[in-house]
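Newbie here. two chains, one complex. Structure please?
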Amino acid sequence: MYSLELSPEQIEIRDTIRDFVAREIKPFAQQSARLEALDRRLPLQLLDQVSQMGLRALALSEASGGVGVDNLTCCIVTEEFATGDPDIAAVLSHTATLAHVLFDQAMSAEQRSRFLPSFLGEDRHHLAFAELEASSDPALGMNYHRPETSEAALKTIAAREGDVWIVNGTKTCVPNAPIADLFAVEVQTPGTHGPSTLLVPAKSAGLTVNEPDQTTRWYHGACGDVSFDNVRVPAENLLGPQGGSPLRRILADLATPQLAALNLGIGRAAYEAALDYAQLRVQGGRRIIEHQAIGVKLADVAIKLEVARAIIWQAAWASDHPEAHASRSVSALPLGAIAQTFAAETIYGCTKQAVECFGAMAVMRDMPLQKHVHDALICLHSGTGTSDAKLRIAEALAGYRRPTAMLAAE
Amino acid sequence: MDFSLSNEQRHWQMTARKFADEEIRPISLARDAIAEPRETFDWDIIKKGSKLGFRTMAVPKEWGGQGTDFVTQALVMTELARGDSAISKTFSQNWKWSHLISATCTEEQKGRFLRPFVEDDTFLLGKGISEPSAGSDNRLPPADDPKAGLKLRAERHGDEWILNGEKCFIANAPVGKLFFIDARTNPNVPLREGTTMFLVPRDTPGFRIGKVFNKNGWRFYQNGEMIFENARVPHANVVGQVNASDVKSKLAGDRSGGDIFGDLELAANALGVCLEACDQAMRHARAAKQGGKILFEQQIIQLKLNKMHMLTEALRSFVMRVAWEHDQKLNSNCAGLAMNFSSDVIHEVTELNLDIHGAFGGIVNKAVEKLVRDALIWTHLAADNVQRMKAARRLGR
């Protein structure tokens, strides 16, 4: 049944996090050193506190020892964290999503029994999915409405040697890499066409992580390039079948608009800052919110953020209720991609409108507005960009069915 | 209608283009990347540019300048901005105030200030208006509120004025040698009736520069606080009349420069940034590959390139028309509109450039990303509500 009423549990989670963000995260995030958009240190202590609240295991099923909330609740949580600090929101949503995907869906019982205890037991245990390589070309682009030619094989190779896989190669732009304890790594195995996935502990000999320079690499949370130099991985760490890497498909099916929720939190931070300031700053003999020009600007931002939240929540709810597709209660279009594209393009504009309320202060590196704009710009250019997302949506409009491999990059 | 440039205009344009290509662009990204805001500046590029006339080209020939017209000034700002928008602005900021000196200062003041300015390659100018609690109120003062607007106080003691207060967000403050300072000489009347403009040399007793602001764009261009603690300025340094700082319109009419030059300046500078963005985008589209083909083959890329060039060429037409109108001494309302438009265009064009380059895997091209940061400066300078309403009010008059 169509309802916009949150459960008491969802409201409690939201309010708890909103309170935590106000008390603990914002005072930290608004220090001038933290506002340097291109020189951010990951706030590990705050992440520990958040882990102790159970949020790494937010999406992990209760049967596995997690909180077991749905995608909608995850989006609400991510939005709240992102109003305080998008890096914290990104790390958490990444680990929480992968925990659900890996432990609840992709791992065998034997693998779960080996890897789950340390995930549950250690507050700093984070997860990463190493997928991309420097030569990856995941954009749809030229292949729009055409069957893709042949997908290039991965250059990270796993060769079997007795009971182990020997892994060599380099993965790039891996979210959570610098803090991850366990990697799911897509590799090419000899003799199979599609990629396979191996579970590789971070402390494996021969595995190194390089953190990029933030001035040339845009990301939220943590990110790194991961190199494998004759890394020996037990044969039983193969995730799913050889040549049938399961993670991309599971993540695509999950269709959660969590990135859009993170983006929404960024927009809200800019909006709330502008609204507060507009009620304090006096020019022209009155508070600037009392000037029409500022009033309509803030109204415009509020409208856009409400509409963004509506589509994000609808997409999240739809991903939690596949039966709603079957009953034709919700659109058959890719709502997650629609939500993310709308949020990315709209919220960047919202942060720029918020900028206008602050005059010259908005461009100063020790003030928050330029960071909100930068954060929104990161979202706008995440993945393969909004134009490419629209090409995928357009294929869906036309009912074009693409063979599995290309789906993955969505 | 004749859009051709004179030989002299063409010569200035080519000299500026060469200077941008050979001297400015090679240092632009490195200067932008310096974290400490007061270290981004480079006197070497200023001296080199000054020797080519880029510091003094708006000063009349009889005072030792190059006496260029507005069309030439627009051409040069645009070319320099192709290399680096902030470096272009550092040069043209001097033109803005040399227009003001020419139009409003006495011969005696010109002798004391314009002459040393022309002769010294490191002599930069600035103007102090904004204060922490007075930004928009200075540009669009409420007619009935004496409390609104700048508060820096100037009181007369014999042949001297004693200045107390502070200014913020002042361009060239950390590097300038001479500043025009607006101060309240009658705090009991509205801003326009109680403000006087003073010429304040950097070594004035009681005057110092405070914090240097750490801007996210235009990082080369210095911007700082000014602090006045019983700063003593001779009465001979009053520009125009006491309680009549608004000399730009009152004494000199619309042809003096001042706002009109400032409006043209931001539009012409934006044009340079947009031209650079178009070049970057076209180069990338013809070199980078996706799906085995160059990007340029894709319709969505062609449409973005079309929009970038369409907006940039429209801006070029508008900028050159406004410059020409200034030279013809036509009383046009277009300068403010061109400046507002330049903000819309520079945002869209630099963002499309970033879009075409993409940031796949979060990897960004620094030269591309810098233009987006520089463009954000236009928001508060060229196209906030106040600047747009000012342009509309001129039309509605």
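Moderator note: Chain A touches chain B through 53 residues (CB under 8 Å). Chain A has 13 helices and ten strands. Thread marked as resolved.
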